[in-house]
Specification:
Layout lengths: L12 H11 L7 H10 L3 H12 L2 H6 L1 H17 L1
Amino acid sequence: MTSERGERGELGEREQAVLAMERRSWPGPGAKERAVREQLGLSPTRYYQLLNALLDDPRALEHDPVTVNRLRRVRAERASRR
């Protein structure tokens, strides 16, 4: 998968795949991490770095507002507990 952006500043394939991965539900521990490695070719650490950056990207919000807003809320809740 490529992370290059489209001509109009759209999300690249990799960014779209990361958001799609977050829309799914996972059956048990380790399933998501395994899918990240197998389907995206990323380590879980790199995946979460990319995901966190996407949450601040207005293009991601435009592409998938429900997922991005949900993840922003989760991130804010975790930050407030620290």
